[in-house]
Amino acid sequence: MDPTQPQDPHKGTLKTTPARRAAAFSVHVFTALGAGIALFALLEAVREHWAAMFAWLGVALVIDAADGPMARRLDVARLQPNWSGDVLDLVVDFVTYVFVPAYAVTASGLLLPLAAPLLGAGIAVSGALYFADRRMKSTDNHFRGFPGLWNLAAFYLFLLQWPPALSSLAIAVLIVATFLPFRVLHPVRTVRLRWLTLTLIALWGILLFYTLARDFDVGSPVTIALCAIAVYVVASDSAIRLLRAFKA
Is the CB of residue 102 less than 8 Å from the CB of residue 150? Predict the structure, then answer.
């Protein structure tokens, strides 16, 4: 999820040709494929094929990670000025990161029956507000508050299978955390400890694939590893700041 695209220092140096314009537009088409993937994920969710739903959301995650570098490489902003990559990215991200997971969380049976529709609506509303927040990302590539990664929050809800009351409380806490001023590192762009972060993200991806292939039937070591990596991503910046404050 990266709605900002830094300017290319070589922007405008390449000759504009129909082939380059077509290549640039193909990046927008590639991004928009995420919306179609979201529909496939939603259809699987309606059938309660949860592992398949998360697999499609994983495909959308790969598209989201790849389209930004492609857009910068092909100078899309200059060659296709009538199409906003930022707006397209946010539209697709909302349905894949927020809306489909909100449905899954609501319909899963993992929450308290009376709370489920309210919490699902809370996910959708808070996610929409977060995506419109101009402060959502800091200059050093950290997210402000819980960064609307409801696809991942839903994944952990299905993985952990907590009692409905505890799962409902966890979702309510994350909705509130969307608006709190703590920082969450960007798993790719944050410079500090990037080598460690990228290594853990690669491991997380392997464990995620294994978990979905097993339809969430995995042992404690896999579950603990997945949770530990999530804690690192969400809490490492706050932990480092706290340690620095104690040393000061």
Answer: yes
For residues 28 and 51, give the distance between their C-alpha atoms in angstroms, rounded to a whole number. 28
Q: How far apart are the C-alpha atoms of 53 and 104, rounded to whole Å?
A: 9
- Tell me the residue ranges of DSSP E strands in 131-243: 142-144, 183-185
| H or E stretch at 177 | helix 164-177
228: which 2 tokens?
């530990």
Beta strand pairing call for 142-144 and 183-185: antiparallel
DSSP character for 16?
Answer: P
Single-letter amino acid code for the residue at 151 = N
Structure pTM?
0.86
Q: Which residues contact 119 (CB under 8 A, 6 or more apart)?
A: 105, 106, 111, 168, 171, 172, 175
Angle at Cα 237 formed by Cα 135 and Cα 232, nearest 5°?
115
Q: Which residues of 147-156 are buried (b: 16+ CB within 10 A; e: fewer)?
A: bbbbbbbbbe
Paired with 184 in beta bridges are: 143
Rounded to whole angstroms, how far apart are CA atoms 148 and 3?
13
pLDDT at 31 over 60: yes
Tokens describing residue 88: 């397209």
How many secondary structure helices (H) and strands (E) does the chain include?
10, 2
With CA atoms as reference, report the closest residue to 116 among 128, 94, 124: 124
The share of the chain scoring above pLDDT 70, in percent, equals 90
Render pLDDT for 174-183 as a digit per residue (tens, 0 to 9). Answer: 999 999 988 8
- At 195 the three-state DSSP class reads helix
CB 12 within 8 A of CB 20: no
